């Protein structure tokens, strides 16, 4: 993952996988199988997008790098910890959380049913928790909708 | 909707996977290709729910398991012997080729004294000692159910017995079959696979991919409701229960296809959310099991 050469190799592998999934999609007769394949496809495409961005920006791929997390949008909202705490997914509020200073919306994220995830609740800065379980899995974050920055 | 009316071969084959392997094992046993293996089933810190679940199995049933597939050498709830006669079965089996199945977590507080299985050579035999002693000698070790695979309810807060998984007390590979309880097919299928072909392909957490290879969410019959954002507001509504706290999106099993109680139903079909009983960390990390105070803006006049 460290140098452009290995990133290119990964991109090649991803392309093979993507083509393979597309081939499977043509022949799978069942809607659940197709949904499964489409999910896999989306996952690979997200990864591909991430790898291509990281080549362009010459950023380091492993670890958590806020610069590559969709912060190129301007005029983003800022949240204090107190403000973020309101978005806990209760009383009709959306579910937001922060990782490395970026605030994400997980209201409709499948893994965050009832705004909870493996004993964690929304409305908090979960940088440490993310790093302890999903270190290096940047694609998880890049799939989420960003809503602002934690200040 | 009857799940077995679908025409997809992949889907139907998956449903029958355990039965097909067991049928092959049956054939192998009938033709004398496979020899019956000794099976020891220990009940450690738990509720005995997994052996009860196994008794509910139908492909094959328990009778076939103990008469034709294995020699069940020890299972404290079901064996005829008791006391010293029961424990002496363990002495007999320890130097043979045997498969060890453990249900229940392993209590480690006070050197395991929270869970004593019987008396071994005049001394109390703790589950901790028994799992270590037999686990090191067994050909295969299968951890059955939530408690054995990751501590489960026995290790839930505050965990006074300091219960841990079987894998945590053994320095060898353990096949993990999580679930509270474990589906009879998951155990029978894994056992038949071991008899026929050896250890099944496992994922990074030691679970057979055959049964634990797919997220419930990805094969959920209510997935289209999730994709369209149609969510149940309360139990009983036949749409996606994501907002109520369904753990299908983080739990890997084939429940939607296989179903329970001899393939008649499963939680989501019965309008209750998946509580993630087969996910590591259950129950503490899967809570709340149900939530009515959610992201949805309630419009009713409560």
How would you sum up this structure, described in words?
- The complex is a heterodimer of chains A (151) and B (302).
- Chain A has 151 residues and is of the alpha+beta class.
- Chain A is built from five helices and six strands; from the N terminus they run H-H-E-H-E-E-E-E-H-H-E.
- Helices cover 46% and strands 14% of the residues of chain A.
- Chain B has 302 residues and is of the alpha/beta class.
- At the A-B interface, helix 2 and strand 4 of A face helix 11 of B.
Nearest-integer average pLDDT of chain B: 91
Secondary-structure element string of chain B: HHEHHEHEEEEHEHEHEHHHH
Largest sheet of chain B: 5 strands, parallel
Radius of gyration of chain B over all CA atoms, rounded: 20 Å
The helical percent of chain B reads 25-40%
Low-confidence stretches of chain B: 298-302
User: What structural class is derived from the secondary structure elements of chain B?
Assistant: alpha/beta
**Which structural category fits the helices and strands of chain A?**
alpha+beta
Helix content of chain A: 40-55%
Give the end-to-end Cα distance of chain A, rounded to a whole number of Å: 30 Å
Strand content of chain B: 5-15%
Could you give the order of strands across the largest sheet of chain B? 2-1-3-7-9
Task: Outline the secondary-structure elements.
The complex is a heterodimer of chains A (151) and B (302).
Chain A: H1 4-27, H2 31-57, E1 77-79, H3 81-86, E2 96-99, E3 102-105, E4 116-117, E5 120-121, H4 127-134, H5 138-142, E6 145-150
Parallel strand pairs in A: 1-6
Antiparallel strand pairs in A: 2-3, 3-6, 4-5
Chain B: H1 9-15, H2 17-30, E1 37-43, H3 49-55, H4 62-69, E2 70-75, H5 83-93, E3 98-103, E4 106-107, E5 116-120, E6 123-126, H6 127-137, E7 140-144, H7 146-150, E8 163-164, H8 166-169, E9 175-177, H9 184-197, H10 209-212, H11 223-228, H12 255-258
Parallel strand pairs in B: 1-2, 1-3, 3-7, 7-9
Antiparallel strand pairs in B: 4-8, 5-6
Helix pairs in contact in B: 2-9, 3-9
